[in-house]
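Request: How about a record?
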Amino acid sequence: MYKIGDLIIYGNQGVCRVDEIGIPDISGIAEDKLYYTLSPVYNDGKIFIPVDTLVYMRPVVSKSEAKNIIKQIPKIQAEIIENQNYKVMEDHYKKLLSTHKCTDLIYIIKSVYGKRKAVQLQGKNLGQTDEKFKKIAEELLNSEFALALDIPKNEVNKYIEESIKKIQKGEDML
């Protein structure tokens, strides 16, 4: 069970803070269950979810875990998924998102960047499905890494790029 103040990943909502644990004063909510009251860190609103929910939840990665994941980025092999059926593509990306692993988010991002380069060489544009899931993956990854690394969300990509350059030069990460 999480504690008040914990930062967690809640489903595909992303990073949320546990504000309260108890029975919210809301009509229609079962009064025999405990609920988490969650606040999305980068969005407005409140989420009331039973403590025993089946929706995926996990703690935000630590700073050292984030750095270790960044070290793995050069080794994550992207795969260009070529399929004319957008539903097959969508299912593939949804399956990867459902693991809630940072490495799978990176896989999506790298795969879509690779696909973008390939289609541009053919004089074409990347499909909306690829763009949509790349954007979701980047938002989830950057939100979590920003908190783990204690940097602004808009600086995560720069931090990753600089870290990878240092790794490739054999230097220590930032």
Q: What stands out?
A: The mean pLDDT is 91. Residues 146 and 155 are 8 Å apart (CA to CA). The chain has two domains: 7-59, 63-169. The two ends are 33 Å apart (CA to CA).
